[in-house]
Amino acid sequence: MVSPPHEAMHRIFQQDPDLFTRVSRLLGLKVPAPTKVTVMPTDLTEGDPLERRVDTLLNMETEEFGPYLLAVEAQGKKHPDKPATWAYYVAYLWSKYRRPTTLLVVCQDRRTAEWAAQPVSSGPPAIPGLTVQPLVIGPHNMPRITSAAEARKDPTLAAFSAITHAADERVDAILKALSTALRDDPEGPTNPLIEFVAKGLSKRPAAQQWRHLMAVDLSFYNSDMSEEIRDEGRVQGRAQGRAQGEAKAVLRILEKRGVLVSDEARERIASCADLDTLDLWLDRSVTAVDVAELFVEDDGEAG
Fold this sequence. Notes:
Transposase (putative) YhgA-like domain-containing protein, 7 strands, two-stranded antiparallel sheet
């Protein structure tokens, strides 16, 4: 099953095909900006036995290089079969479209990136019949864009920076810079980047930070995901309000009944967010003659 990070790592090039021109500079290359780009079919199946699909395929037309194909592959981990598959992609595309093909592999961890960057050769080392040299971009050579001003200049590259650095514990700074840049330009064509970053982070710890920024800094953005986040916030707000109300009720009943409540017990009751625990304390507050009776056999549980 294709994962959200896998989709984000290559589909962002469909959203902004010229991104490859900017990324190529990070790899020490000077690839001209395309004058025209066409998103190509990704199905490379030939004959009956085996289905093959490249992740993203773009037809790039440039004045300096002429037309060429850009095949973008998102690679989450090392896989022994992939080098041969990539060689097949390049050879097949060259044969089918009669156009030179560049293979770009996008990774989220350095080990996978270093593995993917190795040349792939068919035939004995001294006489290879075909050699494929992928271009590889990942956290080892993609800059961390942590300045809102820099993110504002190129939001797509900043989003790509967040995706490739998804596993970096310092990714929060990239996310904040990007959210600030997008917040300052809510009318711009940047909205899809918010979803790309969310998918790129997926279940990593930084995903929660991005969801928070979507709910606060990027509140103007409308999508199924943003509505889901706002619904979660509303549910949490209602639950928090109910918990605060029940805690006040417990303390009020104890006060009316003349039960002495220490500062420590008061803080414990007031700070409790577990509704089941509060319901139990509310029931006990009606008959308790000592505040300690609320917590009997309750130590160690939520509260």
